[in-house]
Amino acid sequence: MDKFVQLQDVGMAFDTKQGRFVALRNVNLDMAEGEFVSLIGHSGCGKSTVLNLVAGLLEPTGGVLLCNNRQIAGPGPDRGVVFQNHSLLPWLSCFENVYLAVERVFGAKEGRAKLKQRTHEAMALVGLTHAEHKHPHEISGGMKQRVGIARALAMQPKVLLLDEPFGALDALTRAHLQDELIKIVAQTRTTTLMVTHDVDEAVLLSDRIVMMTNGPAATIGEILAVDLPRPRDRLALAGDPAYHAARTAVLEFLYRREMRQAA
Amino acid sequence: MQALPLSPTTPPAEAAPAPHADRFKPARAKPALQQAGALPAGPSRLNRTLRWFAFEAVPPLLGLALFILLWQAVSLYSDGLPGPAKTWAAAVELFADPFYDKGPNDQGIGWNILHSLERVGLGFGMAALLGIPAGFVIGRFAFIGKMAAPIISLLRPVSPLAWLPIGLMVFKAAGPASIWVIFISSIWPMILNTAAGVSQVPKDYLNVARVLNLPESKVFTKILFPAVLPHMITGIRLAIGVAWLVIVAAEMLTGGIGLGFWVWDEWNNLNVEHILIAIFVVGIVGLLLEQALVLLARRFEY
């Protein structure tokens, strides 16, 4: 297995008013090119911290992170991030939000017409051609999240990082967007790391599920390979024993091994 | 929107007196019902207009009428204070020829207003040119922010007129001194609001900038400036309010042409009608400045 993204003995500690808080320790993970990996765990276990480390938004206090055999030294457009709360700029239209990213990545080499074409293509990929000229406050939460995905994909990143991308959406919209994400990732074959707290989402989308222990000083507890054939169909999987076995394994981990103390 | 002469900052919905609050509600609920097609359009539109008139237009007019009545009553029992009718007559005469010029100490009301506005514009404009960029720097760089904090905390509470002697000493002339007073008293709200806006730019937006690796110039034009704009306009609004408050007092002390000087001059002439007119003029011009900026601010709400 080639190691496209590597986390080697990564540790992360934050200095807080109460002293040093160790969020992560000894995190070791390798991702192959084109692989879809989910990070799952109870809230506060540092899964978003792992994602932010890969994004380069945080610097690890221990260990090293590599992407394509180069050390991750900061954020860069080779790693597209879809934020939990979409983070679209409210004063720009959906088109302009995506164009800002496209212009930054391809602006030096390509003309304006080509950049616009790329933006149109990204909007079409998430099915939002009709909403290009709307502003974020004029569209629904699900549509905003799709624009966020379009913005990340338009940069043609080597790695797509999704931070609980559908966490704030209702169940039906979430299912719909998960199906779209399956199609998009199958089409673009982008290496993807997704943070989630939704077991079904993790099983449905992932090649491997990384289960994290509870914090503080969280680390990887177990890794589960999901050997379900692709393309996956949510209805067909509902009766599939392998699907249920994977689902049960994750639930076992979360609710038996890493039972969260009542807050 | 209609002007609310007694409280320009109160939104219109709150203008209805509290006891009528329950009766006020059905009028607001009506448009929603109408959209659902529950009511025929004709009579309800008339109804709505009547209700709007009763609950939106009548209370301010009633308040104004009461004010004038009170004024009239007080003037009847006072030797010096002219009543509304006498003041109105004087105002009509005054505004019939607002731009006459009979030498430096006797000019039309229009000239006085324009001169005051000019001073406010100059002082306030320079304060904006300096204060807004200063606010951006103070908000963006924590070190500079901490450097500036003690100076701002020390100087901000100083009464505007306390700066006048410094102005007179440095500029050796009354005109620039009053502009200086406007400048120094209106710069603080713009610095502080801009800085607060910059430090409150949502971290998510800045993370977007980091992930995209945007150059600092793009961060400023695409993220920082639009995010800070509403805060900036609040600062400008507060600043222009302060500037207009201060100009009358400053001109009273420095003389020259302007509303403040005019008030003082008319007091020396014992022309109390004109003093009352000046008070109204100051109030109305202040209200218009405020409303113009409210409209501008609404344009930049996201």
Automatic annotation (TrEMBL), chain A:
<dbReference type="InterPro" id="IPR003439">
    <property type="entry name" value="ABC_transporter-like_ATP-bd"/>
</dbReference>
<keyword id="KW-0813">Transport</keyword>
<dbReference type="Pfam" id="PF00005">
    <property type="entry name" value="ABC_tran"/>
</dbReference>
<keyword id="KW-0547">Nucleotide-binding</keyword>
<keyword id="KW-0067">ATP-binding</keyword>
<feature type="domain" description="ABC transporter">
    <location>
        <begin position="5"/>
        <end position="239"/>
    </location>
</feature>
<dbReference type="InterPro" id="IPR017871">
    <property type="entry name" value="ABC_transporter-like_CS"/>
</dbReference>
<dbReference type="InterPro" id="IPR005890">
    <property type="entry name" value="NO3_transporter_ATP-bd-like"/>
</dbReference>
<dbReference type="InterPro" id="IPR050166">
    <property type="entry name" value="ABC_transporter_ATP-bind"/>
</dbReference>
<dbReference type="InterPro" id="IPR027417">
    <property type="entry name" value="P-loop_NTPase"/>
</dbReference>
<keyword id="KW-1003">Cell membrane</keyword>
<dbReference type="GO" id="GO:0005886">
    <property type="term" value="C:plasma membrane"/>
</dbReference>
<dbReference type="GO" id="GO:0005524">
    <property type="term" value="F:ATP binding"/>
</dbReference>
<dbReference type="GO" id="GO:0015112">
    <property type="term" value="F:nitrate transmembrane transporter activity"/>
</dbReference>
<dbReference type="GO" id="GO:0016887">
    <property type="term" value="F:ATP hydrolysis activity"/>
</dbReference>
<dbReference type="InterPro" id="IPR003593">
    <property type="entry name" value="AAA+_ATPase"/>
</dbReference>
<comment type="similarity">
    <text>Belongs to the ABC transporter superfamily.</text>
</comment>
<keyword id="KW-0472">Membrane</keyword>
<protein>
    <submittedName>
        <fullName>Nitrate/nitrite transport system ATP-binding protein</fullName>
    </submittedName>
</protein>
From TrEMBL, chain B:
<dbReference type="InterPro" id="IPR000515">
    <property type="entry name" value="MetI-like"/>
</dbReference>
<keyword id="KW-1003">Cell membrane</keyword>
<feature type="transmembrane region" description="Helical">
    <location>
        <begin position="177"/>
        <end position="196"/>
    </location>
</feature>
<dbReference type="InterPro" id="IPR035906">
    <property type="entry name" value="MetI-like_sf"/>
</dbReference>
<dbReference type="GO" id="GO:0006811">
    <property type="term" value="P:monoatomic ion transport"/>
</dbReference>
<keyword id="KW-0813">Transport</keyword>
<dbReference type="GO" id="GO:0005886">
    <property type="term" value="C:plasma membrane"/>
</dbReference>
<protein>
    <submittedName>
        <fullName>Nitrate/nitrite transport system permease protein</fullName>
    </submittedName>
</protein>
<dbReference type="GO" id="GO:0015112">
    <property type="term" value="F:nitrate transmembrane transporter activity"/>
</dbReference>
<feature type="transmembrane region" description="Helical">
    <location>
        <begin position="275"/>
        <end position="297"/>
    </location>
</feature>
<feature type="transmembrane region" description="Helical">
    <location>
        <begin position="120"/>
        <end position="142"/>
    </location>
</feature>
<keyword id="KW-0472">Membrane</keyword>
<dbReference type="InterPro" id="IPR005889">
    <property type="entry name" value="NtrB"/>
</dbReference>
<feature type="domain" description="ABC transmembrane type-1">
    <location>
        <begin position="113"/>
        <end position="297"/>
    </location>
</feature>
<keyword id="KW-0997">Cell inner membrane</keyword>
<comment type="similarity">
    <text>Belongs to the binding-protein-dependent transport system permease family.</text>
</comment>
<keyword id="KW-1133">Transmembrane helix</keyword>
<keyword id="KW-0812">Transmembrane</keyword>
<feature type="transmembrane region" description="Helical">
    <location>
        <begin position="238"/>
        <end position="263"/>
    </location>
</feature>
<feature type="transmembrane region" description="Helical">
    <location>
        <begin position="53"/>
        <end position="74"/>
    </location>
</feature>
<keyword id="KW-0406">Ion transport</keyword>
<dbReference type="GO" id="GO:0042918">
    <property type="term" value="P:alkanesulfonate transmembrane transport"/>
</dbReference>
